[in-house]
Write a structure and sequence with these properties.
With 316 residues, the chain is an alpha/beta fold. It has eight helices and 13 strands. The structure holds guanosine-5'-triphosphate and magnesium ion.
Length: 316
Amino acid sequence: MARNAREALYLVVSRRRVSLEEEDHIPTRQLQDGGRRSKNQPAHANAYPAMVTTVDRGRFELLLLDPTRSQTRISAIKARQIGRKGVIVGDNVKVIPTSKDAGRIIAVQPRNTVLRRSADDSNTREKPIVANATQLAAVIATTSPEPNFGLGERAIIAAIDAKLTPLVIATKCDLAAPNNLRDYFEALGVEVLTTVKGQNVDNVAKRLTDQTTVLIGESGVGKSSLVNALVPAAGRETGHVSSATSFGRHTSSSVVAFALPSGGLLIDTPGLRTFGLAHITVKEFETKARNRLNTDSEKFQELLKLVQDLPALRNY
Ligand SMILES: Nc1nc2c(ncn2[C@@H]2O[C@H](COP(=O)(O)OP(=O)(O)OP(=O)(O)O)[C@@H](O)[C@H]2O)c(=O)[nH]1
Ligand SMILES: [Mg+2]
């Protein structure tokens, strides 16, 4: 973090604790933002809409959605009034700037969608991944690591449950042909896009424009490489895949959202080993799949069987 951003954050954190009532009546001089207000005006009147782009141990990076401000990225903490309520990447929030590049989140807007996974199939404790996504792209390499069809299917099931459009992006097509991946997922009614190292990714860019797409896949499949290709300013670190084990190095450790140059958002996530589905119910899944997957296909029957065979923790 830049030094001035860290200092600003320190000032925010070290500010004396105030009661809820006081929070709503912050003196004007603490709003060094230009948004002047009278002493008794509620804080919400000076709040800006923003979107959470990353979360790191109680600290949030936000993209301010106010086109009149020159500074569009700020760090923020949660106001006490939000309590223990979780704030996740993709959340639309209201923030009160406390300096040029820091602020305090005072409200979280209702979510349109929530992509979640559970700790594992027999543990219903949910782990929300992102809010307000419209698409999920299961990123699967043709090789290195070898395709994990099971993880892809699970991500697709979670996408359907969260009312997101599922896609498959087959990476590393310069190393092996994507035919088996394409046949497998197209039979299910899922669109399959392909990428080749060093070639343009216009086919993917076109498909992601004006959508909020979350990338899900194993470590080393090339999620962050794809982000860098689509968002040149992203500068995501990428890692090597071990030639001995064919496993990735779990290079990315946090969920981060980036604005796509042609509109929309792209969300990179850390590599997953498993995708727990204990939160899925069979009936709901069947209903939600109707308009999004080829439910007449044999492949869909296999997918349904996977959901039916999950430990019977759920309310059918
Ligand atoms: N040959 C080839 N290599 C690729 C391609 N895409 C990514 N790679 C390589 O695969 C390795 C892993 O890429 P990353 O982008 O770090 O993978 P990731 O999915 O973000 O991995 P985690 O952050 O660990 O989850 C890097 O060495 C990339 O250069 C591709 O299309 N072809
Ligand atoms: Mg990565």
